[in-house]
Structure formats: structure tokens, C-alpha cells
Write the C-alpha cells for this entry.
Amino acid sequence: QLQASGGGLVQPGGSLRLSCAASGIIFSVNVMGWYRQAPGKQRELVGIITGGGSTNYAYSVKGRFTISGDNAKKTVSLQMNSLKPEDTAVYYCYAWSKGPSTDYWGQGTQVTVSS
């Protein structure tokens, strides 16, 4: 229902862009964003964007990552700059619909930051 793309291997200091699109099965979304899960760690919020365009980021990525999206089109992207080895994780696209309240998750895309 959520299809993510754009992961890969990048050197420290490099950039990657992740994209995600929701299928037609998902009628509407009110919030979209990204979570990530590193090996041996819990899944954590990276950032979200609301239908009104408000964004919220994890402290660890502020100033380096930028979320953009169009909830009407059900798409969201994550521009990741100045990547660090600690950004290595599986990144999951996320969407929330308020009527009824439903969480949607993408299949995950691997991001590896290594020299």
C-alpha cells in the first residue's frame, strides 16, 4: 500500500533521497513521514509532514534531512544530506489516515552510510 524507493549505499557526508507513494487502496492520508530502525534498536521517528505542511523532525536529523510531500497526491519524500554512519538503518514510509484512524507502513528500504 506504501511503496518506498531510493535507498542504497552512500559515503559519509553524502546525500540520498527517498520517495514513497501510497496506492489507491489508501483513500486519503492526513500525515505522512518516515521512521527508521537500526540493527538492535527500536524503530524511531525520523520526520513527519501534515496535510497543512507542518513538519516535525527527530533532533538527530534536524538541519540535515528535509521532508516534502503532498498528502492529496499521497506522496512523501525525504532528502537526506550530510549523512553519517549512525543514519544507517532500514527506513520505513509511514502514513496515517484519520477516518477511521489507521496507520500504514511501507516495506522498508535500506540506507547504509559507510566508507
Observations:
- DSSP finds no helices and eleven strands in the chain.
- The mean pLDDT is 92.
- Residues 67 and 78 are 5 Å apart (CA to CA).
- The longest strand covers residues 89-98.
